[in-house]
């Protein structure tokens, strides 16, 4: 079985087909969060600190760390800001990290201060990117997320995306990088815009597992983009993707509905021995009806109370 080893200074986790699903917490990312970006530019890391602690408490396996604030201030240099953010995150938790940047100089700077064996997020199939990032992956002996797009952009054809992934794996082999150190993101399309997006990604994940033998990841919330009540779609998508062979996702662990779906999938896939994690998290959870009955707010309790009062009056 393919095993992708990621580690902090004190903790090692394994991404694999026979391992619990790896939840990569996505919250430390100023992209699309102008308030957070402005705070980071100003040297205020209060929100970052809260996001770290909240994701750890919610059950994240590792944390993605991004410092791309150019949407707020294009003059900010990403490498030192990413280094500062990583040092803070490492001081708050012993979870492994994912270094999230498309800037090779920022990735290099981050790798120099990252403890353990971080995941690098990411490289694409563009030749320029491959030649900039893969030497760093080899030098620092770390795994990398490979995104299935290249100079032609993101194809709607899943066969094209598979071939881009194959190209990255083959190119990495030229640098002596093994498939176990490549985690492919097959790119999840929004189901609201492409009705076949779910079936596409499930088929792609199976091919990536069976034909290339690589672990996989995705931005889980992409599937529900543009739709109402997105968490319901995400919570259904995740167990289906896990059953197809997906082994990790970049997602928000602070959404109980989605984390419950992941933990249930781990149980049903046989990756939660003796249901230990499920029991630890949910043994004290009572059904809503029981909680309501105990508090005297259940409809049946009100009806019984009403009937008893009327009999007493009669």
Automatic annotation (TrEMBL):
<feature type="region of interest" description="Disordered">
    <location>
        <begin position="294"/>
        <end position="314"/>
    </location>
</feature>
<keyword id="KW-0489">Methyltransferase</keyword>
<dbReference type="InterPro" id="IPR011005">
    <property type="entry name" value="Dihydropteroate_synth-like_sf"/>
</dbReference>
<dbReference type="GO" id="GO:0046872">
    <property type="term" value="F:metal ion binding"/>
</dbReference>
<keyword id="KW-0808">Transferase</keyword>
<protein>
    <submittedName>
        <fullName>Methyltetrahydrofolate cobalamin methyltransferase</fullName>
    </submittedName>
</protein>
<keyword id="KW-0170">Cobalt</keyword>
<dbReference type="GO" id="GO:0005829">
    <property type="term" value="C:cytosol"/>
</dbReference>
<dbReference type="Pfam" id="PF00809">
    <property type="entry name" value="Pterin_bind"/>
</dbReference>
<dbReference type="GO" id="GO:0050667">
    <property type="term" value="P:homocysteine metabolic process"/>
</dbReference>
<dbReference type="InterPro" id="IPR050554">
    <property type="entry name" value="Met_Synthase/Corrinoid"/>
</dbReference>
<feature type="domain" description="Pterin-binding">
    <location>
        <begin position="21"/>
        <end position="269"/>
    </location>
</feature>
<dbReference type="InterPro" id="IPR000489">
    <property type="entry name" value="Pterin-binding_dom"/>
</dbReference>
<dbReference type="GO" id="GO:0008705">
    <property type="term" value="F:methionine synthase activity"/>
</dbReference>
<comment type="similarity">
    <text>Belongs to the vitamin-B12 dependent methionine synthase family.</text>
</comment>
<dbReference type="GO" id="GO:0031419">
    <property type="term" value="F:cobalamin binding"/>
</dbReference>
<dbReference type="GO" id="GO:0046653">
    <property type="term" value="P:tetrahydrofolate metabolic process"/>
</dbReference>
<dbReference type="GO" id="GO:0032259">
    <property type="term" value="P:methylation"/>
</dbReference>
<keyword id="KW-0846">Cobalamin</keyword>
<keyword id="KW-0479">Metal-binding</keyword>
């Amino acid at each position: 079985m393919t095993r992708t080893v990621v580690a902090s200074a004190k903790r090692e986790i394994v991404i694999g087909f026979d391992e619990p699903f790896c939840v990569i917490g996505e919250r430390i990312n100023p992209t699309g969060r102008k308030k957070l970006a402005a705070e980071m530019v100003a040297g205020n890391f209060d929100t970052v600190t809260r996001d770290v602690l909240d994701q750890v408490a919610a059950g994240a396996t590792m944390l993605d760390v991004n410092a791309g604030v150019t949407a707020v201030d294009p003059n900010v240099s990403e490498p030192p800001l990413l280094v500062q953010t990583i040092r803070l995150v490492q001081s708050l938790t012993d979870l492994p990290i994912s270094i999230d940047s498309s800037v090779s100089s920022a990735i290099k700077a981050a790798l120099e201060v990252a403890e353990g064996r971080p995941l690098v997020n990411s490289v694409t199939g563009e030749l320029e990117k491959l030649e900039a990032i893969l030497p760093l992956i080899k030098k620092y002996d770390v795994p990398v997320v490979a995104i299935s797009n290249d100079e032609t952009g993101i194809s709607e054809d899943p066969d094209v995306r598979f071939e881009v992934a194959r190209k990255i794996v083959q190119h990495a082999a030229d640098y002596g990088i093994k498939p176990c150190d490549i985690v492919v993101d097959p790119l999840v399309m929004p189901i609201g815009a492409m009705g076949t997006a779910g079936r596409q990604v499930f088929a792609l994940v199976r091919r990536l597992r069976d034909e290339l033998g690589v672990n996989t990841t995705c931005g889980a919330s992409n599937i529900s983009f543009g739709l109402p009540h997105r968490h319901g779609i995400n919570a259904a998508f995740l167990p289906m993707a896990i059953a197809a062979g997906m082994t990790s996702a970049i997602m928000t662990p602070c959404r109980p509905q989605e984390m419950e779906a992941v933990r249930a999938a781990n149980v049903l896939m046989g990756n939660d021995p003796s249901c230990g994690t499920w029991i630890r998290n949910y043994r004290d959870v009572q059904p809503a009806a029981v909680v309501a009955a105990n508090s005297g707010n259940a409809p049946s309790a009100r009806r019984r109370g009403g009937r008893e009062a009327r009999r007493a009056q009669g």
